[in-house]
Specification:
Structural class: alpha+beta
Helix content: 10-25%
CATH architecture: Roll
CATH topology: Pnp Oxidase, Chain A
Distance between the termini: 21 Å
Shape: globular
Largest sheet: 6 strands, antiparallel, barrel
Number of strands: 6
């Protein structure tokens, strides 16, 4: 779990959105449980990244990329059945900034 910190495209307000996030090396994959058209996803795409608060740290993420994966191969096997039940097959991949 984590919290995405992003800024509204129109309001310029700061927002905090809880997400289900998985780390794969320098990449972070967020399950889009509310779909790829959610306002927070659009904000991140427009900004070219966001911050992620997880495990007591804040990480800067960039290079957002949406992808669709019906098999959920990018995620650990334990979570695949749960996300299948929730009909989640869209994801947002971001890269950690050093």
């Amino acid at each position: 779990m984590g919290v995405v910190l992003h800024t509204g495209r129109k309001t310029h307000r700061k927002y905090r959105t809880p997400v289900l996030v998985f780390r794969r090396d320098a990449k972070f994959i967020i399950a889009l449980t509310y779909g790829p058209e959610s306002q927070w996803v659009r904000n991140i795409l427009a900004q070219g990244g966001c911050e992620l608060e997880t495990q007591g740290r804040i990480l800067r993420l960039s290079n957002p990329r949406l992808f669709h994966d019906e098999q959920r191969r990018a995620l650990p096997g334990f979570f695949r059945p749960m996300l299948k039940l929730l009909n989640v097959s869209d994801f947002l991949e971001l890269t950690a900034v050093n």
